[in-house]
Write a structure and sequence with these properties.
The protein is mostly helical. It has 25 helices and no strands. Among the domains are: 1-113, no CATH class; 132-214, Alpha Horseshoe (Serine Threonine Protein Phosphatase 5, Tetratricopeptide repeat), CATH 1.25.40; 376-432, no CATH class. Helix content is 74%, strand content 0%.
């Protein structure tokens, strides 16, 4: 009806009539889907237009509609929807739409499948891939890929190259989005190289560029990255200000999925500073939203919620969260996503074991660490919780032999404190 609600038997009779049509007049089906798709497209109902085009196997029309919608879907974080539509299109249709190929690459990257990125990009015709702006756009995607694979030098080089190339290109909506993404990669790269001064100024630049582009997903990531960098410098007030300023950008959309990662960061900060009621409000809301997201973001919300439950003295409430994390781990593809899920499980099991020394938790954590955890700090914490300080020291020693610039990035201090804890456990108080 006019409120977009179904009459009670509408769907039942609609399905019956469709079955009758397919049986009695199958030759009319595609034409009727074409009419419906055109009508929905003119009326502004994008999703319905695409669904009718796909249902009628009008793949050229469907590919054009999906391509037009793809940038907005990526910016809004609706990765699963975009990948679902792409999966229903013949591969040859994608090559006709370079922007759709780029957004397909972004989608598999954000889903946590970095190994698929190059395969997707290779689907772009060479004549297009080697010309501006698509050559620069691919540099931005590959810069993001390098950043996620722990290669900050490559990420910085590619991001700087893309920004230089795009500086001479017109400032259309897509190029603005790509500039903002490149600036964000540059900020992360500087941070991981220990150049915190340049990282702070570049996070600010990335925030401005992405706001201008209307890319709220990247703008909020810039605000979050900026705040997390301030946390490593001990500036809790500055970090909280950045997190709250980021959330203010989407204050008119309090239930948007885009806000959820920032809500997790702010919730964790509230937890660390003893504001458990506000932490509860933020983390519960974020976890509900992140259930619609990919496994990496979802796991971060579950870990934060588990830590909150432990702080509230509710270790039993952590068990179902661990079960969810284990299910996500089984579903996660290899590479980046699997590494993040392994780390999430290990850190949650460690926190639980530290509060409740149960043989079952010990066995669970020992098994996870034996399988491997990519993050050495998470693994070291786990070995300390298992009363195996010597194994923790093996991981921590390289992390505390760094330059002063790298030490400023923050992780050096955490590693040094854990190393001191390990030496105390080994009765080596002088070294501690």
């Amino acid at each position: 009806d006019e409120e977009r609600r179904w009459y009670r038997y509408h769907q039942l009779f609609a399905n019956l009539l469709r079955q009758h049509l397919r049986r009695e007049q199958p030759e009319r089906v595609a034409g009727l889907h074409q009419v419906a798709s055109d009508w929905f497209a003119r009326a502004g109902y994008r999703d319905e237009a695409i669904e009718h085009a796909l249902a009628g196997e009008l793949f050229a029309e469907a590919a054009a509609l999906v391509a037009d919608a793809s940038s907005e879907l990526v910016i809004q974080g609706e990765i699963s929807k975009l990948l679902g539509w792409i999966g229903r299109l013949p591969a040859e249709m994608l090559s006709r739409h370079p922007q759709l190929i780029l957004n397909h690459a972004w989608s598999v990257l954000f889903r946590g499948s970095p190994a698929e990125v190059e395969t997707v990009l290779q689907g772009m015709p060479a004549a297009v891939a080697e010309t501006m702006p698509y050559s620069a756009y691919q540099m931005v995607i590959r810069s993001t890929l390098a950043s996620r694979q722990g290669q900050p030098a490559i990420a910085v080089q590619l991001a700087e190259g893309a920004l230089t190339a795009l500086a001479a290109y017109e400032r259309d909506p897509v190029s603005l989005v790509m500039r903002g993404a490149a600036a964000l990669n540059l900020a992360y790269g500087y941070q991981r190289q220990g150049d915190t001064e340049r990282a702070v100024s570049t996070f600010a630049r990335a925030l401005r560029l992405n706001e201008e582009a209307g890319n709220m997903l990247a703008a909020l990531n810039a605000a979050r990255g900026w705040g997390q960098l301030l946390l490593t410098q001990g500036d809790l007030a500055g970090a909280e200000a950045r997190f709250r300023a980021g959330l203010a950008l989407v204050a008119d959309q309090p239930r948007t999925l885009l806000a959820a990662p920032l809500q997790v960061s702010l919730g964790q900060l509230c937890l660390e500073t003893g504001r458990l009621a506000e932490a509860e409000s933020l983390l519960v809301a974020a976890s509900k939203l992140l259930a619609l997201s990919g496994p990496v973001n979802q796991s971060e919300g579950l870990v934060a919620l588990a830590r909150l439950r432990l702080a509230q003295g509710q270790p039993a409430a952590v068990e179902p969260l661990l079960t969810e994390l284990q299910a996500l781990q089984r579903q996660a593809p290899g590479g980046y996503a699997r590494d993040q899920l392994d780390q999430a499980l290990a850190s949650t099991e460690t926190a639980l074991l530290e509060q409740q020394p149960d043989p079952g938790w010990r066995a669970l954590l020992a098994n996870q660490l034996a399988l491997g955890v990519a993050d050495p700090l998470s693994a070291a914490r786990g070995w300390l919780a298992l009363d195996q300080p010597a194994r923790a020291l093996t991981l921590l020693a390289p992390l505390t032999t760094v330059t002063a610039q790298q030490a400023a990035a923050g992780s050096w201090l955490v590693a040094a404190l854990l190393r001191a804890q390990a030496h105390v456990a080994l009765d080596d108080e002088a070294e501690a």
